[in-house]
Amino acid sequence: MHQPTIQSRPSIYYDYKVHQPWMPSKNPRHQRHSVVIVGSGPAGMVTALELARHGVPSVLLTSELQVSQGSRAIVFTRRSMEILQQVGVADRVTASGLPWLYGNSFYRGQRTFRMEAPHDEDDRYFPMINLQQQYLEEYLLDACLANHFIDFRWGNHVVRVEQNAEAARAEVDTPEGPYWIKCDWLVAADGGRSMIRSATNRQMEGTSYEGYFVIADIRVDLQLPTERLAYFDPEWNPGNTILMHREPHGIWRVDYQLPAGETPDEALQPDSLKRRIDAQLAMIDHAGVPWEMDWCSVYAARALTLPDYVFGRTIFTGDAAHLLPIFGVRGANTGFQDAQSLGWHLAFVVKGLAGLALLANYSAERVGAAREIIEESGKSTRFMTPPSRGFMLLRDAVLSLSLSQEFVRPLYHWRTSRAHHYTNSAINSMGDDNAMFKTGPAHGAPPQNVHLGDDDYLLDYLGGGFDLLYFTDKDEIPGAVQQVVTDARSLGVPLKVIAIGADRPVSGADRTLTDLRGRCRKRYGVLATDAAYLLRPDQHVCARWMTLDAHRLKSALNTALPK
Ligand SMILES: Cc1cc2nc3c(=O)[nH]c(=O)nc-3n(C[C@H](O)[C@H](O)[C@H](O)COP(=O)(O)OP(=O)(O)OC[C@H]3O[C@@H](n4cnc5c(N)ncnc54)[C@H](O)[C@@H]3O)c2cc1C
After folding, report:
1. Distance separating alpha carbons of residues 51 and 536, to the nearest angstrom
2. Collapsing DSSP states into helix, strand and coil, what is residue 209?
């Protein structure tokens, strides 16, 4: 029998709540569910919330009775915030997180590079915001518990999975014994050590890097701004790298590389931790400042992905699908994008609005994203932890040259997690005017936000289905275009029409946004009236036209929803 711990996890700043396990004997049982999600990390919960937005119920099974141990992911990107806005928790993250813009790199005590992340008045969210993962999970959990489409089951540990062409089954162990659950689709969001990945014998491809990092969260009073700090080759840890981030609640993350040959057990000895953290504080002119340890762990950089995220009736997402180096804040930020993508792709298949080709598209797009990240983060990883003498020589040359040469400094550029562009997606429209636009988000790109005035932004109005952005200063959306929209809706396809540009409500549009300063037109590269963009439910562009007509819209919708 599965006995999850009922002791609150230790923390000096976060009060862990221990939830009641879901007991099979006390709850009605259903013969078969549409979707069962295994894992209540960021990926599992965002998948459940996204499915719920499309009216698809899910059962969410999770082994433990509490949110995750330790801060884990602490930096969330603007794109993650836009996704979290869609599932209703971004305001809570904004209220409690620490936003930031600048990153600093130091070499042997001298600052060699200061980078400002791009940010302008059209962005609702900062490029980065720091918040411990437990808080983020708590906010997602509250949203899940408030949602009647989500059947959240604490203390339900999946021990076995089976599937055939029609269904999947999971054996679930609970504090009062096991039961079986059957579903059309089983979502494996069970994290980096995914039991389901092992049970289905799925093999990952990629690279595991040598060398370990210690992550330590300490409470300490440092009078420093919220900025990323990276120290290369410091005196107390020669040849190695140290990262520091400020977290809310007076906590700092100190992340340092271990010398070759040192084991994780040795590194986590209290004496070793104290000596190194004291040395780091001394190096940043805070010698002797009192500090207290909250949580520490050791990790190695891995850059691995499954080659396919759909295996029969089982679909992988988040860390269960890939293991990415955390340099560049890849872990949870990539998981949000996976989950947002999976949510709508799966919902449309479940609702019969598209065929299995749409799930294959989820896999192709997100495997493509993981491979791109592996390529990019490999560069960062080789810079932070050079895997050979050759890489070490090159890295040291860049570092030492940067002390005197300005042109070398941008080579430090951090490659931070960003939204993948599905440029070659199978569901991008073939017959549109994508190639004719000079600017604006192209095929597969994420949307660009636009500040409309006061606390009002374009992305506030998007999502939950397809969005047709129709640029016009006329009184009405053309009748034939309206008819295509009506026909799509009558088949159950959620599709909103947002007219942009007119100064009075446009007939046939669900909403009209006046574009007084022309910001929308500029950001979307629109030169003439009757131009349009079709955005998918995850807000990525799948078609854009200089002039839209009904036939082209119909064709784009058919391509986006393959039968
Ligand atoms: C020690 C550590 C430090 C990290 N630091 C950073 C960082 O600094 N920056 C960063 O970006 N990322 C970091 N990460 C990575 C980040 O935490 C993950 O990328 C993120 O949590 C992935 O989300 P997920 O939902 O895919 O998986 P997870 O968050 O791992 O969630 C998996 C869920 O599945 C549940 N589960 C597992 N097995 C079963 C089962 N058999 N039955 C039922 N439930 C099951 C678990 O209890 C959990 O709820 C760190 C991870 C770790 C482990």
Report:
1. 15
2. strand
**Token pair of 422, please?**
């599905």
Amino acid at site 222: L
Task: Look at the alpha carbons of 455, 459, 462, 464 in this order and tell me if their dihedral is positive or negative.
Answer: negative
Tokens of 324: 């990415």
Distance 75 CA to ligand 1 centre (A): 14
Q: Which of 247, 301, 271, 268 is nearest to 11 (CA)?
A: 247
Q: How far apart are CA 305 and CA 105, in angstroms?
A: 30
Q: Name every protein residue with a CB atom under 6 angstroms from any ligand 1 atom.
A: 38-44, 61-64, 68, 72-74, 133, 157-158, 189-192, 195, 215, 297, 299, 318-320, 326, 329-332, 335
Whether the predicted model's global pTM rises above the 0.90 cut: yes
Distance CA 335, CA 501 (A): 35
Which residue in this structure is represented by tokens 């290369």?
A: 232
- Residue 410: pLDDT band by 50, 70, 90 thresholds? low
3-state helix/strand/coil string of 373-433: HHHHHHHHHHHHCCCCHHHHHHHHHHHHHHCCCHHHHHHHCCCCCCCCCCCCCCCCCCCCC
Q: How far is the CA of 41 from the centre of ligand 1 (A)?
A: 6
Most confident of 79-93, 258-272, 394-408: 79-93
- At a CB cut-off of 8 Å and minimum separation 6, what does 81 contact? 90, 93, 94, 124, 125, 129
